[in-house]
Write a structure and sequence with these properties.
By secondary structure, this protein is an alpha/beta fold. It has helices at residues 9-19, 62-71, 89-101, 114-123, 138-145, 176-188, 210-227; strands spanning 5-6, 24-25, 49-56, 81-87, 106-109, 127-128, 150-153, 168-171. The strands form three sheets. Strands 3-4-5 form a three-stranded parallel β-sheet, sandwiched between helices. It is elongated, with a radius of gyration of 19 Å.
Length: 234
């Protein structure tokens, strides 16, 4: 390709190293795709942390979320985590068994429509999104877009979006213990409060505003077209 780009610096740097070519980084526009439902789905607890993805699995850190929630039972027995999405087969039985053992403190929900997801995000204390590796996850963008703090992981691309202490927390990648400590802090209120920030106005969030992101796309395409070598004459 004459011009190549990725949404995250993590992915762009990976392909630049692997292919030995220049890779641009163009932020993904973050916007409300649909109107949020007025109320979250039936069965949603009154207070909860939220973990969600289309596919819940090891890459998304779903096993770490459940492990951390179980660790929290001793020090915060009322801590409740809602997990939304289709559980990938390798960890399905394990997660379902652990959720049953948690006796209502881990609530599993199937994949939901975007309006219902938005309602769940807006009602959450925080979202718990500890991907081991990712490429600017939509779940993180959506949470921050609604002013809901994110507990994410270092070295996963989520650290390109979350400012610790301002819009959430970043924990050691792959550590259920570190995740548990951040979840406890969020649950006890030692954390940015939902609705306390406008992510689009922050230094990290500004490039993801739709009009800003669109302008960057157009500028990058125009620059690439100008520098494109002419096609050889037949």
């Amino acid at each position: 390709a004459h011009f190549a780009f990725a949404p995250s610096r993590l992915t762009a740097d990976h392909y630049a190293r692997k292919l030995g070519r220049e890779m641009a980084v163009l932020p993904t526009p973050a916007f409300e795709e649909v109107t949020a439902l007025d109320l979250p789905p039936e069965g949603t607890p009154p207070r909860y942390l939220l973990h969600f993805a289309n596919q819940l699995g090891a890459r998304k850190g779903s096993d770490l979320v459940v492990e951390a929630a179980l660790l929290a039972q001793a020090s915060a027995p009322d801590l409740t985590v809602v997990c939304v999405g289709t559980i990938e087969k390798p960890i399905r039985a394990q997660l379902q068994e652990q959720a049953a053992a948690a006796k209502g403190r881990i609530v599993l929900m199937p994949t939901l429509g975007k309006g219902a997801i938005y309602a769940l995000i807006r009602g959450a204390v925080a979202t718990v999104l500890p991907s081991r590796i990712d490429n600017i996850p939509n779940a993180v963008l959506e949470s921050l877009m609604f002013g809901v703090p994110v507990i994410g992981t270092l070295g996963s691309s989520i650290d390109e979006l979350v400012e610790p202490g301002v819009t959430g927390a970043l924990v050691e990648n792959g550590s259920a213990q570190a995740l548990f400590e951040a979840m406890i802090a969020a649950w006890r209120g030692d954390f940015p409060q939902s609705g306390s920030f406008r992510w689009g106005d922050t230094k990290l969030g500004h490039p993801y505003q739709p009009e800003v992101a669109a302008a960057r796309y157009l500028e990058a395409i125009a620059t690439a077209l100008k520098s494109r070598p002419p096609k050889p004459q037949r």
